[in-house]
Amino acid sequence: MNEPATRPPPHILHAVTFILITNDDGIASPAVPALFAALRGIAERVEVVVPDQERSWIGKAISRHGSIDVHEVSFDGHVGYTAGGTPADCAQLGIYNLFDATPDLVVSGINIGANHGSAYTIGSGTVGAAVEAAIAGIPALAASASSRRDNWPEWNTTMRRPDAVPRWEPLAEITAAIAAEMLAAPPADVDVLCANYPDGATPATPRRVVPLAETHYGQLFQRQPQGHYAHDWTSDMKGRTETAGTDVATVLDDECVAITPLRLAGLAAPVQGLERFAAH
Q: Which whole-number Å values give the CA distances from 45 to 20, 192, 269, in the listed order?
């Protein structure tokens, strides 16, 4: 497709509030039309650039080799774009290539599945797209939803059906409320806000700003015939430290909305005890 002949430099101030939506679940996700409608309530311009298929658990990968096909598509009576790349690729294309202005805010999600705890967050394509926006200097929100009460495979299947849009609408309203706060006053010293919702949350559900839990998981791949290995995650996420007061416990135990600020650059804590790595 043809790129605009000219475009404003990054971060240009413009009168129309512009939000870019991306995700790692693709255009078929019923969260897309729900989120689009909710964000149109707070911004004059909302654009959608998402992968052409599900690209979960791919982090902030960028397509270094080959080309990326971009196609105009329709969803729920609206026009968006799909890209044959990663969620971070989609953020890049939406920020720098496809439009005549730079987004004021990038909203990634709403992901079908949790992205709380460090293990999930680091690997998340949803969070990865938001991180790509943050690298470009644009405020970014990564939103995800999960259910503790329902069996994961059944919930995942149900929430991907086209008729699930009404179940995503309250979650989209929460996302729009958080996005509106970010547009009004971007949080200082924060690159990405991660929002995690329990299934069934509404705008009346309490929201808490909490830290990221330190978590890990076990085996991800199972041996297949002929010696192949396939992703077949069956292990449970476990906390490396106490999860009370973190994003994990806020969503799973308290059934509240967890909002977790992320910084891309910083020091691991504690620094003490690492002196032996320094040169003398």
A: 8, 21, 41
